[in-house]
Amino acid sequence: MIAPAALPLLDARYALFLDFDGTLVDIAPRPDAVRVPPGLAGALGALQAALGGALAIATGRPLADIDRFLAPLVLPAAGEHGALLRFADGRTENLAQPPDLGPALAAAQALVQAHPALLLERKQAGVALHYRHAPELEALCRAALLQAVQAMPGMALLEGKCVLEVKLRGIDKGRALQALMSTPPFAGRVPVFAGDDVTDESAIVAAQALGGAGIKVGAGASAAGWRCNDPQAVRAWLLGTARAWAPAASIPTGAPHA
Ligand SMILES: O=P(O)(O)OC[C@H]1O[C@H](O[C@H]2O[C@H](CO)[C@@H](O)[C@H](O)[C@H]2O)[C@H](O)[C@@H](O)[C@@H]1O
């Protein structure tokens, strides 16, 4: 129905799943420094309404982060790489019991103490160690967390953009997408997932396996059938679609691509 840029045409048959960092918002120097362009939350709200509620965020972050960045919008979501789900009716579910993070936390805390340029992010079901400001420490961080993971049954090491995360093994965004797709208002729709990182590939594969579309944002190998350059292109697609669908909605013109 609507075709801003070379991304899938969206209409009311679809369900939309969106990664956050590197997809909806540009990568920033620190997790708390991301900027949500004016109009983005309004456009997401308008799209959610146009899709009968079938729009969800799928993120590695805790859900509280997403709610803060998109306030007052509260969307269905998969948080912490799929460990936590929030359905359209507001119900939340942990896909697994919150694990004992002791060994990973101890290893990460020791590293941060020795190297203050590193940044530790503690989550309910995982630990993220950011080395964006000390790339020379990547190998050291990986070795320390890999060793910690040996003592943590059921946990695995995930590599993202300048970050190493200890997370639940076997839980990923692909499983989260499948779980949300089995519930209203997602069930029976065609899923479209957009993401930028290797951590998004499971959801790209899951969306395509359900007859939908996967969009890879930025460079790098991917199973996705669609590609776009950057979060700006994603936002242009979403905002163009939202404006065409809900022209009367309070979506500012011009600003959101910033
Ligand atoms: O699944 P996502 O929504 O893409 O979340 C993945 C991780 O994103 C955050 O870290 C990344 O973005 C930061 C802000 O741009 C950046 O500073 C960092 O280097 C990136 O790795 C977030 O902090 C993590 O918890 C998420 O897992």
Estimate the strand proportion: 15-25%
Which topology of the largest domain does CATH recognise? Answer: Rossmann fold
Q: Compute the separation of the termini in Å.
A: 25 Å
Number of continuous helical runs:
7
Helix/strand order: EHEHEEEHEEHEEHEHEEH
| Oligomer state of the chains in this structure | single chain
Shape: globular
Query: How many E-type strands?
Result: 12
- Name the CATH superfamily classification of the largest domain: HAD superfamily/HAD-like
The biggest beta sheet reads: 8 strands, mixed
Bound molecules: the ligand O=P(O)(O)OC[C@H]1O[C@H](O[C@H]2O[C@H](CO)[C@@H](O)[C@H](O)[C@H]2O)[C@H](O)[C@@H](O)[C@@H]1O
State the low-pLDDT regions, or none: 1-5, 252-258
Provide the number of structural domains. 2
What is the residue-averaged pLDDT? Answer: 93
Structural class: alpha/beta
Helix content: 25-40%
What CATH architecture of the largest domain would you give? 3-Layer(aba) Sandwich
